[in-house]
Amino acid sequence: MFRLAVTTLRYRTAAFFAIFVAVLLGGALLSAAGGLLETGLRLNAPPQRLAAAPIVVTGDPAYHPPNGSGSAAFPERHRVEAALVTELAHTPGVGKAVADRSFPAVLSTSQAGELAGHAWTSAGLTPYRLVAGQAPRGGQVVVDERLAGATRPGQRVTIVVGGEPREFVVAGVAVAQHQVDVPAVFFADADVPAGVDAIGVFPAGGTSARDLAKRLELPAGVKAYTGDDRGVAEFDGIATSLPLIIMAGVFGGMVAVVMALVVSATIGLSVRQRRRELALLRASGATPRQVARMVIAETMVVGVLGLVLGLLCGRIAGSWIFGMLADGGVVPPQLRFDQGPLPFAGAAVLTFAVLRITVGFAAARASRIRPIQALAEAAVPNVALSRVRILIGLVFAGATVAIALSTPFMGPANAAAIGGPAALTGSIAVAVLAPLVIRRALLPRITRVVEKRGTGGVLAVINLRVRAVQFGAVLVPITIATAIAIGNIYSQSTQQKAAEDAFTNILSGDVVITSTAGGVPASLTEAARSFAGVTAVSELVRSKGWIEEPYDTSHTSDAWPLLGLSGPVYKGKVTKGSLGRLTGDTIAIPPGMAKKLKVDVGSELGVRLGDGALVRLKVVALAEGPSGYESLLLPARLLAAHTTSGLPSQLLLTTDKSRAALRTDLSKWPGTSISGRSVLADGLDTGLGVDAWIGYLLAAIAVAYTAIASINTIAVAVLDRRREFGLQRLTGSTRREVSRMLGLEGLLIAALGLLAGLVTAAFTVVPIAGATRGWPIPSGPAWILPAWVAVVLLLVLPTTAITGRIAMRAKPMDALSSPVG
């Protein structure tokens, strides 16, 4: 049987090529997902500016809730006490300990807004070497060679520090001894802001760095890193593996499910088209077991070849996807992509299992073929579905409806997690019930329109009705892709728009000042109060934090949005207290949270801020916010002091509508710009970054599988109809008429797939829109929908036309005598 299976491959090239490509893509993407998982578990980020220090001590960049449930990255730099530098320097086995402090410092000739300022004493942590001049003293700087340009020691330069432009004398020019992405500006110790971000520890001679790191006595919340783990102390965002692990899990699971559906449809179509030859095998003495073994053997040979090539492409796919995530800001670009043997082994096992289980079902159907019945049904395939298959389809359809009905009651925070699976369950329901969807649900409603197109239209409708099973194999990938692509894209855009609207609508003001030089300085805030036409001014600071005393169990690993204000711009209803008292160590919280925590105006809360500091704050007001998007309100100066930059990110002005403020000269503050409130949401962290990229990756998978599955399945189905086309031409039809019939069939199946997919996507998008925006109207780019329709039509119609011409290349009599399709 194995030899017969290998021989069969020569005559079923199109069908087996479809399986080969689907498995190849699945193996490559699964190994890529495994690489993302391994990267998230390892979190290796080779240090750059701190590379010379064998041990780096810094605050734990991950927040660990008191109840031990998960972890989350601190949104700000988690600094350490300055006294720890002296303690570590006197620890046995330590040669020296060097403090490091990073802060925004922008050279007037540079456009960068990175944390580029450091103390000259920390230059040895890279190390940097002077190539001109000397070490800086008060009022002097040493600049990176890449920033110096034509600047020479002794010249004056303007550097924006703390949002304020200041003049410094260039004392020297230095060059890093290895690659450092962000060019540095080094200051004298007296000119560096207070605080310590990290401590570079150099072991004494003969002391192992790893052993010393384990022996260091560190305060709670402070950790020592060695090797590639030192990058955690240098780069933001490398704190917890949870986002990458979630992404890898969802991504890999979706690839496996979609691959199973596509491969199943392709194998099922191939088996159904071979009922005649399988029946002949049974009539000639082959047992059901032998027929099943033959189907399994031929499919597994092709599948294993595709899997091997897919694994070889897995590294390319993984690096490409990881590069897109880094470019999109989902992961730090300094994080190293790790893809060892385990991701490939896992991908191989999972792909092989999916393929073997899928082909097992097809082989079981093949083994049940009765010789005489199969020969009688070869021309007109049976469309009847088994009760078990109908039951499975109805279960998934019911699950889709249940998910859609429950999503609007879950609130914005859980809407995507609850409503997202509806696209997948709905797609599975359509895939299982595809023949019934074609014959009973969709086709009768468009029959009359198509039949008016003449004989070709009548034949197209008849073919769709009697070949519902074969056309179902084409319908499935189009439906799955449409549901996943449209559902994920519009779900993400709807949630993003809802979060941005909730933030911007709760704030009054119509003019926004933004700084790209580290933040808005206090001098600009004071000056803005005297701008022409300005009636109110408020600094805006955004961060995240947690309520720990009393402990808030509703926000554990996910943080509360923190909003810092210094003026009367908050539009939410204040049910008790006054936001005018929001100064010093105070806070305003939502009434619902106050009730849950059993606190009131005048109570004290222990709040863990974004830099890890636990502060005691007095409740001065209960302020409502948009349902599901409430924030904790703090004084801007208090919150800014616990951010990485130490300054407000924006300045919000309320004007008398004369727009005079928009014409204000801001040249005194380099890097600042003034515009309308449309930029208010720029840089807003809605917490959807990872979710959005999961959605986009799933949409990309859907597009790729649709292209492959549609092209291959259409090719297989059309080429198998050579005898039918030959008979039509012998009875008087021309090639043009047959091509027109095929075109109408392709247009119909594309329309049916799009319609089924859009209906399925609606079960995800509409409930999420209702939960996040309050009404069932999604938001997002309008061009996405027509663009997707164009993609599907460009896949289906040209493929149908080309394969139709190939199928009709032979003479009619030769086509009738063709042994295989």
Automatic annotation (TrEMBL):
It comes from the Bacteria. Its main location: membrane. Residues 250-369, 697-797 form the ABC3 transporter permease C-terminal domain. One of its GO terms (cellular component) is plasma membrane. The chain crosses the membrane at residues 244-271, 291-322, 342-364, 390-410, 416-438, 471-490, 693-720, 741-763, 783-803. It is a multi-pass membrane protein. Coiled coil: none annotated. It is found in: Cell membrane. Pfam families: FtsX. Keywords: Cell membrane, Membrane, Transmembrane, Transmembrane helix. InterPro entries: ABC3_permease_C, Membrane_comp_ABC_pdt. This is Putative ABC transport system permease protein. It comes from Kribbella jejuensis.
